[in-house]
């Protein structure tokens, strides 16, 4: 900083020596700027735009900052405790069960404020990581979650009406990977997970529960881990060393990776202070003691020195990579088939035409199918109609025939009735005649009795003599109640009945 | 101004469980966060320092355009603003050079540094504006230039493989010089500002204010403000973009009292009361440029450079550029309105009737 001020003063004095109205200086560094048509200028006084970073920062303070941490590690390894210790707060959380069937991610957002800085901190925890018997599916949910956050941001960026400055950035800025303090080497699951995450997020590996390892073992363990990571090509986050002010400390920190941490929110009295520590029968492990564990280093690197760089890397490297892959997947390229620069617009137009053509074709197809089906159905219905009609006709005919038969029968029956009544009438006449000759009448009675419909009952027998009427026939007398006239008169009553 | 984002602002706490693989990417809801109290100092506020360092390393771009009839003192004012020979003055032109037939756009870039802050300043001059006999549509080349810069930025942004830092050539601020007639605005002024206040931040400035007395000045300013309001011209800082009450009161004060700034420019120094000040020497006295009693140059400089520089850039980026982008993507029929690119790669389901089932 002092060098900058000195340079500025030098310029000022240089300028003051000249009179106003001279053309601008052309220092050496200007060579490479010539092509930009830019010149370096010196100012004769204080203009005031050095407050520009302040203006920018003020703006950011107004908007607030966002920071998202993803903690990956087995259940019970101390993730929540470490986060609590890092931020010196008791984030509410309870112990998770070991019996989840799948790995799930749980995200929680907290608003922290320190002096005038408002930080929206999101902690994403993996629940059930490494608990299953079959761990093949363990890392996929994590990868999917990270991708989903990138996707959401990409969607927002590609909208027509977008509001990026208002957007709550949920992309993961750093992933703390918790390694079990076995003392031997990385587990296969760890290796696989880190390999699948290293191109999507900044990974900082930490050795959890570091109080389980002794100091000498710890050194060996760290070396083993780092060599394993390097030999497997896992790219963990390297603290940036391009800014002179923090280059030295970052470089030394890079050598201490992975950090061996101990987390604790319990306070124990050591000396005359209350410090965060874990108390054992054989001693007290102090969290903030650099000899005991690397917690302070982790906090320093993560929060105090490189938070902005982590966010920057996420946006410019990981997100851009994701975006590039996603857009290329969709078929958009920057360079067309003739190696001309192809704009997104043109590609999209081309694709649109293609899809519209496709759609037209499909529409036609569907229309054809539809028409065909309609025709078929129509034919079927017509067929059915015809059948029905035929059936109807047939039934009608049958019905007609039946009817005629019945009519026939009725006619016959009526004729029979008529015939029968005729017969009856005739037989009655005969009856009258037949009483003169009883024998025959008796016979006729018998005969008559055989005939249905009429029954003649002998009521009384008149022995008075009565006129005979020879030669006279009954027919003249009509059909009324035939009164028998004969010698041996008899009164017959005609009764209907059986 | 922003379309209703699909994030429903239901106040659900963001403890979300992502059970299945391949979850559908949903725009995350603005979470209702839990206010936690820190039990001790952690060091989160160092992020300010980190951010500041980062921005100082990358440097800034600032593009300012000056528009006005020739002879109003545009170049002088810009030189006074940035205390260096940013633009060559017209008096140093060759006498034989004619007035350009159409409005030209001349952009010259400079790199200036102060207090460790590097700024790439581009001054865009518009010689020929309002100088012809027939000045119809003389604002069109200017509007075209502004839109071209937006287009350039859009093209870069839409690339698959993007640059880390897209070079920003968009016009952040346009100083419009009003002739100090003392009466009112000219029709050309109104037309220009009407057309351009929708695409760029316009700051109206009364040039050569040393020709007016104090009363004339205040009257003229009032009249100009009234005319601008009557014609619906929104100059920077625009009322609709005031974010909170604090901004509003501050900007109201500027809008209603100080603007348009009546300025005097000069790059010559004179001795006044033992101090060397920038000023104009006349038989009746020395007009000090940076004296608030004499003119409002200092107000303009503080406004543009010291307090609102970042805001000018942000309004340009978040509002004017977004408006241009939305219009451009809509007009081209490229992207259907309201949908993102990825959401409609497949065309929507056609509305043909489904064939009846067998």
From TrEMBL, chain A:
Record-level GO cellular component terms: cell projection; cytoskeleton
Molecular function terms from GO: GTP binding
Biased composition annotated in UniProt, kind: Basic and acidic residues: 469-480
Main localization of the protein described in the UniProt heading: other
Residue runs in coiled coils: 367-423
SUPFAM superfamilies linked to this entry: P-loop containing nucleoside triphosphate hydrolases
All copies of domain Septin-type G, residue ranges: 63-329
Keyword set includes Repeat: no
Cell compartment(s), UniProt: Cell projection; Cytoplasm, Cytoskeleton
Region annotation (Disordered) ranges: 18-37, 469-498
Gene3D superfamilies: P-loop containing nucleotide triphosphate hydrolases (3.40.50.300)
Residues that span the membrane, as ranges: none
Keyword line: Cell projection, Coiled coil, Cytoplasm, Cytoskeleton, GTP-binding, Nucleotide-binding
Family, per entry: Belongs to the TRAFAC class TrmE-Era-EngA-EngB-Septin-like GTPase superfamily. Septin GTPase family.
Protein name: Septin-10 isoform X1
Gene that specifies this protein: SEPTIN10
Automatic annotation (TrEMBL), chain B:
Function comment: Filament-forming cytoskeletal GTPase. May play a role in cytokinesis.
Stored Pfam families: Septin
Record flagged with keyword Transcription: no
Complexes and interactors: Septins polymerize into heterooligomeric protein complexes that form filaments, and can associate with cellular membranes, actin filaments and microtubules. GTPase activity is required for filament formation.
Taxonomy, superkingdom: Eukaryota
GO function term, MF aspect, one: GTP binding
Protein name: Septin
Matches recorded under PANTHER family: SEPTIN (PTHR18884)
Localization terms from the record: Cytoplasm, Cytoskeleton
Species name: Gulo gulo (Wolverine)
Region (Disordered): 1-29
């Amino acid at each position: 900083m002092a060098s900058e001020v000195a340079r500025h003063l030098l310029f000022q004095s240089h300028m003051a020596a000249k009179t106003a109205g001279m053309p601008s200086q052309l220092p050496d560094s200007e060579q490479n700027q010539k092509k930009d048509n830019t010149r370096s200028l010196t100012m004769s006084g204080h203009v005031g735009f050095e407050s520009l970073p302040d203006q920018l920062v003020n703006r950011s303070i107004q908007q607030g900052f966002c920071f998202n941490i993803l903690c990956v590690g087995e259940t019970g390894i101390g993730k929540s405790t470490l986060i609590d210790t890092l931020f010196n707060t008791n984030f509410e959380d309870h112990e998770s069960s070991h019996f989840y069937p799948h790995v799930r991610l749980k995200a929680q957002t907290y608003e922290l404020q320190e002096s005038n800085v408002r930080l929206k901190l999101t902690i994403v925890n993996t629940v059930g990581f490494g608990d299953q018997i079959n761990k093949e599916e363990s890392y996929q949910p994590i990868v999917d979650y990270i991708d989903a956050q990138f996707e959401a941001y990409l969607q927002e960026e590609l909208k027509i009406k977008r509001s990026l400055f208002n957007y709550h950035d949920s992309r993961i800025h750093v992933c703390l990977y918790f390694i079990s303090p076995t003392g031997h080497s990385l587990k296969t699951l760890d290796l696989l997970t880190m390999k699948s995450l290293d191109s999507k997020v900044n990974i900082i590996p930490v050795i959890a529960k570091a109080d389980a390892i002794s100091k000498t073992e710890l050194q060996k363990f760290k070396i083993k881990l780092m060599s394993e990571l390097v030999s497997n090509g896992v790219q963990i986050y390297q603290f940036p060393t391009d800014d002179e002010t923090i280059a030295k400390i970052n470089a030394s920190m890079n050598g201490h990776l992975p950090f061996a941490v101990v987390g604790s929110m319990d306070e124990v009295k050591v000396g005359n202070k209350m410090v965060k520590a874990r108390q054992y029968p054989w001693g007290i492990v102090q969290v903030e003691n650099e000899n005991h564990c690397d917690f302070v280093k982790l906090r320093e690197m993560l929060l105090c020195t490189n938070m902005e760089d982590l966010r920057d890397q996420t946006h410019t490297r990981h997100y851009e990579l994701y975006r590039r892959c996603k857009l290329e997947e969709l078929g958009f390229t920057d360079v067309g088939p003739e190696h001309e620069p192809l704009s997104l617009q043109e590609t999209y137009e081309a694709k649109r035409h293609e899809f519209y053509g496709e759609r037209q074709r499909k529409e036609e197809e569907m229309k054809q199918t539809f028409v065909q089906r309609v025709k078929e159905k129509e034919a079927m219905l017509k067929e059915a109609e015809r059948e029905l009609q035929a059936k109807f006709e047939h039934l009608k005919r049958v019905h007609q025939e039946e009817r005629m038969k019945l009519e026939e029968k009725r006619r016959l029956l009526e004729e029979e009735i008529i015939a029968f009544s005729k017969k009856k009438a005739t037989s009655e006449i005969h009856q009258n005649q037949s009483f003169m000759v009883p024998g025959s009448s008796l016979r006729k009675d018998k005969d008559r009795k055989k005939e249905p419909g009429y029954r003649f009952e002998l009521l009384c027998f008149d022995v008075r003599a009565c006129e005979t009427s020879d030669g006279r026939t009954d027919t003249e007398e009509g059909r009324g109640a035939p009164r028998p006239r004969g010698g041996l008169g008899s009164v017959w009553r005609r009764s209907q009945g059986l | 101004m922003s379309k209703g984002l699909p994030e429903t602002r239901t106040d659900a706490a963001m403890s979300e469980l992502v059970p299945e693989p391949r979850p559908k990417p949903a725009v995350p809801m603005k979470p209702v966060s839990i206010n936690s109290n820190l039990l001790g100092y952690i060091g989160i506020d160092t992020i300010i320092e980190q951010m500041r360092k980062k921005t100082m390393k990358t440097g800034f771009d600032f593009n300012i355009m000056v528009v006005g009839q020739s002879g109003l003192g545009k170049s002088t004012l810009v030189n006074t603003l940035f205390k260096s020979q940013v633009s060559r003055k017209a008096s140093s032109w060759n006498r034989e050079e004619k007035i350009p037939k159409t409005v030209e756009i001349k952009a010259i870039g400079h790199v200036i540094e102060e207090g460790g802050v590097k700024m790439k300043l581009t001054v865009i001059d518009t010689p020929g504006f309002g100088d012809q006999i027939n000045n119809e549509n003389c604002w069109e080349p200017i509007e075209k230039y502004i839109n071209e810069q937006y287009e350039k930025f859009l093209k870069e942004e839409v690339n698959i493989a993007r640059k880390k830092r897209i070079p920003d050539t968009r016009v952040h601020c346009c100083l419009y010089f009003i002739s100090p007639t003392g009466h009112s605005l000219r029709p050309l002024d109104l037309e220009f500002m009407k057309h351009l206040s929708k695409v760029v931040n316009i700051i109206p400035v009364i040039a050569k204010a040393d020709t007016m007395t104090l009363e004339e000045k205040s009257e003229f300013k009032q009249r100009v403000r009234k005319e601008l309001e009557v014609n619906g011209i929104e100059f920077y800082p625009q009322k609709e973009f005031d974010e909170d009450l604090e901004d509003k009161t501050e900007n109201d004060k500027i809008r209603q009292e100080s603007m348009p700034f009546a300025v005097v420019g000069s790059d010559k120094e004179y001795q006044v009361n033992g101090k060397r000040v920038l000023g104009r020497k006349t038989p009746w006295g020395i007009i000090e440029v940076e004296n608030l009693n004499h003119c409002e140059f200092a107000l303009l400089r503080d406004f543009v450079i010291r307090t609102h520089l970042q805001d000018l850039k942000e309004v340009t980026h978040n509002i004017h550029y977004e408006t241009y982008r939305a219009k451009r993507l809509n007009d081209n029929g490229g992207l259907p309105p309201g949908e993102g690119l990825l959401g409609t790669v497949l065309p929507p389901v056609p509305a043909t009737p489904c064939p009846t089932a067998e």
